[in-house]
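Risk register update: the risk that structure generation would not scale has been downgraded. Supporting records follow, first protein first.
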Amino acid sequence: MLSTVEPTRRKQLSWIEAILDYKGWNRTRLAREAGVDPSTLSKFLNDPDNKSQLQTTSIEKIAAVGGIRPYNTTPPLRMDGLADSETEPYVAEQNPGLVDVAVSALKAGRNGVDPWVMRSRALEHEGFMPGDILLVDLNAQPQPGDAVCAQVYDRQGKAETVMRIYEHPFLVAASADPSVRKPFLVDDERVVIRGVVIASFRPRRAA
């Protein structure tokens, strides 16, 4: 039994480490994004007897957000037209104090409004800069000229979340950055609009 457990555990450990490195997350962030009990992941990573393994349900949840297929340690190639880590979900725990108060106020208790942190220059000419927090209304109907949040899927079904301007039937960047200039055709299969940007907030940067 031990000879089976150890190789499987080593593969799982290598896979988790590859995901953490690829995403730039810590263990707590990975557990939160995957919806896995943090204690489950901690026990697996810190098991002194080297016997603990991840269960199938946990593997599926982690794979869904990790961007790397189970037991694979090679990150996928970036899709053409996408910058690295264009945007990421806003995490309240990482923004204590006035920043989170401001984001909560902008949400105003509305359901279906998600905050995202801009990480690329894809909308710089529209006034949205890296580090800005964008509020996305998932229930709003996009109109031409709107800044929208969309998902672009690769051939393996993995999605990258991007912010673009909706110019029916395309999504286009508003930027001088050549890495994000490629337009995307909205076909509701490979490219899907998730919501409309309705507000933004720019945290004060340290001088």
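Supporting record for the second protein:
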Amino acid sequence: MTHEEFEKAAGYWKKKDAAGKKMDRGTLTAAMETYIQAHNTCALATGAGTFVRCTPIEYSWHDGAFWIFSEGGLKFFALERNKNVCLAIYDPYEGFGKLNGMQVTGTVEIVEPFCNEYLKAATFKKIPLEALMKLPSPIHLIKMTPKHIDFLSSAFQKQGFDCRQSMEF
């Protein structure tokens, strides 16, 4: 592909979104919350320089953030260097009329083990504090705060909206 072809492909959704029928923020927020709550696993993409990693991992959603407990792994190599991440939540592909998926970009912070925020997330996740305290090293808690969400759902078209909806936070 030429540079111009790459630019055209990269701008596809921006051009299409400009002409699309948008949901009001309240309706879109409710749809996003419902979709996020209906799932518990995402693909978390991290990167720094030439290093990239995409990790399938469980999450919980509350207080306007994604909360991810993790023992460790190479994602932390990137997270130390770059707090910008992207996560994807999606349904299995069953055809164009049944598309459902979400891409969330945002920033992360590593929550200090056993601080109030950590304990609240563990309680929400129903992880016993006693079990966490017995581990030889603490489980890390990643808090991902969304900055932008792109949500694709075929159901939106049935409601008279464009199938792709976006929201800035």
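The radius of gyration is 18 Å. On this basis the risk owner (M.S.) recommends closing the item.
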